Amino acid sequence: MIASDSLNVTHEDAQSIDDCWNRIGIHGDKSCPLLSEHIHCRNCAVYSAAATRLLDRYALQQEERASASIAVESEVKTRSLLMFRLGEEWLALATRSLVEVAPLQTIHSLPHQRSRALLGVANVRGALVACLSLVELLGLDSTSSVASGARVVPRMLIIAAHGGPVVVPVDEVDGIHAIDERILEAASRSGAQASAKYTRGVMQFKGRGLRWLDEDQLMSAVTRSLT
Fold it and tell me: What range does the record give for the signal peptide (predicted)?
């Protein structure tokens, strides 16, 4: 379907074009002296030139609209966040801290664990990577409840900690989303995060509460758990 503003442009240009094909041409009284030569107006250079002019104007307007759209979009700053679930709580982590979302792997426990948050190690493409519990680090309820009939695939997040990557298992990954910086600023000012560990703010997303994690504080806690 052609947009109404495109039709307006076509109409405005038509006003300035001598539509001879409607007066003396194939759609008119057929008195044009060139009609016997061209058989149909669409074969005439006058008709072709008029059509080209209209198309050029339409293309120019589309380019102007696209440029304006890009300019507006560039004014809206967003931040890329990974949304995931642990137990009953949904959380968000800046993707700059994320290396990869990987399938769940077997976690091998270690003797003489250094901290309660250290679950052990997992094999990630042939390399043993330390595996930590975000549930323990964040002080969350470890009980996971999933609606009946829901298909949930647990994942492992490989995050870039100081000194090397670490793996954290999560119950569900929603995906990566670009969030307007203004929403994040409002969340950080809300004060709702004061009682939550390593949290920058709390916001609403897809009709549910979402806890936005402070990646710097979280990475420091991860490092402490490994030393």
Answer: none
